[in-house]
Amino acid sequence: MTSLLAIALAAPWVIVPIVTAVRARHSRSLDEESALAPADGPLVSIVVPARNEARNIARCVRSALAAKYPRLEVIAVDDHSADETGEILRRLASDDARLRVVVPPPLPIGWFGKQWACTAGAEASAGEIIGFFDADTEQAPDLVARAVNAMRSRRADLLTVVGSQELGSFWERMIQPQIFCIMLTRYGGTETVNESRHASDKIANGQCTFVQRQAYQDTGGHGAVRDKVAEDLAMAQLYFRAGRRSFLVLGLMQLSTRMYTSLRELVAGWGKNLFAGGRDSVPFGAFGRLIYPVLLVVPALGGLAPPILLALSIGGVFGHGVLVWSAIVTGANLIWWLSVYAWLGLSPVYGLLHPLGSAMVLYIAVRSIVRGNRVRWKEREYIAG
Predict the structure, then answer these.
(1) What is the pTM of this model?
(2) What is the pLDDT of residues 132-148, one digit of tens each?
(3) What distance in Å separates the CA atoms of residue 80 and residue 228, rounded to the nearest whole number?
(4) DSSP class per residue in 114-141
(5) Beta sheet of 246-250, edge-to-edge order
(6) For 151, what's the count of Cα atoms within 13 Å in the CB-facing half-sphere?
(7) Cβ neighbours of residue 315 under 8 Å, at least 6 residues apart?
């Protein structure tokens, strides 16, 4: 390999981060909307599905009840939890009449638990707008008002909010930024998603999604995506195909989530989503789905292989061309990850250790591919559709 060829082959590692950063800037935020609830604002029903969420549920529900929005009800769905989730919810409900606790019937065959719980919560609600919040989220008091104003200004049937991610442990800080950067590279900023005319480019954040009740009912609710592990993505695509108006918006100051707290949770959580859920977002139809396993491992390999080849080239295993290529690519990756962690306000040490994060993402991706459409989550086994 000549030096010129090595430089040419390294170009994607230099160009892709630049393009990703540019596309990420093409985004809009809830900060653009008024934080004041409209005087004639509709009743908003917040639905929180929860199964074995004793660690998170009080924080989530209390923040929902603290919303500065006058016409509000909160419905927490205790999906047959085996921990103290139900007890905590009942205690909270005794202190605030706006909170109701619902226990759904046993999970039917063919349904994922979250979709079943969301359906039960929606059926028990009365709001013209329904907001679905994951139990591991915390909402700022102005979230609901800004979301309602955004839905009105955009005449939205569905509005989904991307918040900030809380990164507490070492492995969260190693793995979460890598996976979210992969998603950012794939989808771009909010307006890139909103302006796309292809269903495969549509995505939603199931951690926080608001829907107009009529549109939700007309499109089949969560029952229409009952067997999808990434129900949020499937719902966004469903609304688009049905001609409904759906929008993705940033809410970094209005919503925060701590998805997973340990390596075990990270492996299990992303392992259920990356393949069985991600394949629904692949363009090029059947061909895209066929090559998706390869596409899934490429980003992690792109972060892991260059420093390995650089070390081997320095040791004399490979020639000058590989040395030049691996040095350029490793340097480009390092600059990118140092920039990412600087933006996150975290130590540059995590940027220096980015190959370790890539190795773990590769492991999670391969594990997800091997499992295929078989999903295990919250002590339940599913077959993803």
Answers:
(1) 0.94
(2) 999 999 999 999 999 99
(3) 20
(4) HHHHHHHHHHH---SEEEEE-TTEEE-T
(5) 99-102, 72-78, 44-50, 129-133, 208-212, 158-162, 246-250
(6) 27
(7) none
Strands 72-78 and 164-165: unpaired
Q: Can you list the alpha helix ranges (DSSP code H) found in 165-284? A: 170-187, 190-195, 213-218, 231-241, 263-273
Say how far apart CA 271 and CA 17 lie, in whole Å: 25
Nearest CA to 158 out of 223, 77, 240 is that of: 240
The share of the chain scoring above pLDDT 70, in percent, equals 100
Determine the pLDDT at residue 285.
82
Would you put residue 10 in left (φ > 0), alpha (ψ -120 to 50) or beta? alpha
pLDDT of residue 1: 65
Q: Largest Cα–Cα distance of the chain, in whole Å? A: 73
The two three-digit tokens of residue 261, written as one number? 């707290």
What is the distance between the alpha carbons of residues 374 and 358, in angstroms, rounded to a whole number?
24
Q: Helical H runs in 315-353?
A: 320-344, 348-352
Query: pLDDT at residue 123 above 90?
Result: yes
Q: Say if residues 226 and 261 touch (Cβ distance below 8 Å).
A: no
Cα–Cα distance, 241 to 284 (Å, whole number): 16
What is the Cα–Cα distance from 234 to 226, expressed in whole angstroms? 10
